[in-house]
Amino acid sequence: MSTTTDNPQTAARILVAEDSPLNQQIALKQLEKLGYQATAVSDGGQALETHSQTPQDIILMDCQMPGTNGYDAAAALRDREEKLAAAGTPVKRVYIIAMTANTETDNRERCLAAGMDDFINKPVQLPELEAALHRAFSDRATGRQMDEIIDPVIIAGLRQLRTPGKGDPLAEFIDLFLREAPAGLDAMSEAVAKNDPTSLARVVSAAAALKGSAGNLGARQLAALCEEIEQAARNWMLADTKPIIQRARLEFDRARAVLETIKGGN
Q1: pLDDT at 2 over 50
Q2: Measured between alpha carbons, how far is 179 from 102 in angstroms, rounded to an integer?
Q3: From edge to edge, which strands make up the β-sheet containing 14-17?
Q4: Which of 67, 121, 230, 234 is 20 to 30 A from 133 in CA distance terms?
Q5: Residue 36 contacts by C-beta under 8 Å, 6 or more apart in sequence?
Q6: Which of 146, 243, 148, 139 lies closest to 188 in space, CA to CA?
Q7: Contact predicate 61/78, CB 8 Å
Q8: Which domains are delineated in the chain?
C-alpha cells in the first residue's frame, strides 16, 4: 500500500461526494490509509460549489445521490470547464472517479457518457481505490504532456461549434488537417530539393498555409516551426529551412498522435 512518505501525490486535493455519512467516513479513512487527505460533501450540488470555490484534482463521485446526482454533477463540471476554456480562462480538468453499484441503470457506459474518467464499484475496496488513484495521476501526467503539443483552449473552442443533430465539426477539422499537413510538408521538401527560381516562393506559400492550419487546431509548436521556415525562406536562406522542415515533420507526428487521441475521445 502507498504511504504518506512514498507517495508523491499526497498534496492533491481530493473530494468525496457521497450522501451516506457512513460511506463518507469509510472513504475518508481509506484515503487516509493510502496517504491522502480529503474532504467530503453529501450531494452533487455541493460538489459543484466546493470545486468552484477550491478547484479539486480528483472527485470521488457517488452516482446515486439525492438532489443533484453524480451524473448531472459530472456533466455540469465538464460543461463549466469547456465554457471557461473557450473563454480563454486557464482551467485544469478535474479527474472524476465514479462510485457506483454497477446495476443495469448505473453502469460504466453511463458514467463515461456523463464525463467521468473512471469507475469503481461499491462497496469500495481499498486495492481498487488505490489502483483508481494511480490511474488518475497517470492520466493527468499524460494530459499535461498532450497540452504541451495541442492547445486545450483551442480544442475547447472548436468543440463549442457542435450543433445538435449534425456531425462533430472537431473530428472533421482533425481529419482534414491530418490529410493536408503531410502534403504541405512534402511540398516544402520538394521545393528545397529542386532549388530552382520558384523554390523560395513555394516554401513560403506552403509554410504559411501549414502555419495557419496548425494554429487553428492548436498545434502551437508546429505553427512556430512553420513560421521559422517561412522567415528563413523570405530571407533567402533556403538551405537553412531543410533541418527545420525535418523538425516540423517530427512535431507533426507528435501532433497527429494527440489529435487522434482527442478525436477518439471526443
Answers
A1: no
A2: 41
A3: 38-41, 14-17, 58-62, 95-100, 118-121
A4: 67
A5: 7, 9, 10, 12, 14, 133
A6: 243
A7: no
A8: 14-149 (3.40.50.2300), 159-264 (1.20.120.160)
Task: Give per-residue pLDDT as tens, 112-157.
Answer: 888 898 889 889 999 889 888 888 887 776 777 777 889 877 887 7
pLDDT of residue 266: 54
The cell 480563454 sits on which residue? 88
80 is written with which cell numbers? Answer: 463549466
Q: How confident is the model at residue 9 (pLDDT cuts 50, 70, 90)?
A: low
Please, what is the Cα angle at 42 between 40 and 48, to 5 degrees?
A: 80
3-state secondary structure 25-74: HHHHHHHHHCCCCEEEECCHHHHHHHHHHCCCCEEEEECCCCCCCHHHHH
Beta bridge partners of 99: 62, 120
Closest CA to 60 of 121, 127, 104, 138: 121
Q: For the segment 151-210, what is each residue's pLDDT rounded down to a tens digit?
A: 877 887 787 787 877 777 889 999 999 999 999 999 999 999 999 999 999 999 999 999
pTM of the model: 0.59
Instruction: Answer whether 230's CB lies under 8 Å from 214's CB.
Output: no
